[in-house]
Amino acid sequence: MKRKSIEEVPDILFLKPDDKILQRLQLCLAFKMGVKKEDIAAQYDVTPKTIFNLSRSFDQEGVKGLIDKPRPGKPQALADSDKKLALTLKVKDPSLGCQAIAYE
Which domain of life is it from (predicted)? Predict the structure, then answer.
């Protein structure tokens, strides 16, 4: 096997895997080995549909496909200008609380 430089190693190898990613990889590998989706689902407490989706993502993207994608959340309540104002007021007078800043 030819040695590679560190620059040639895929970035995915430097991620710190969490238990969720390892579990997803295990269930994908079990599915690829021919274990029934229903048996895997019972073992890992997921639905057969989840196994299918993870397996498809793994086929298309490799291990990167097993990492959660960012999801949109609730929009921020304060505009950036309001945040800056609140921080400025707090820096000027650290004793101010949320209600006092809200009245400014």
Answer: Bacteria
Consecutive H or E run containing 39: helix 37-44
For the segment 13-28, what is each residue's pLDDT rounded down to a tens digit?
A: 555 656 788 889 889 9
Q: 51: domain range?
A: 16-66
Count of structural domains, the chain? 1
Q: Is residue 6 part of a domain?
A: no
Mean pLDDT of 61-90: 83
- Residue 88 inside a domain? The answer is no
| Span of 14-23, 38-47, 48-57 with lowest mean pLDDT | 14-23
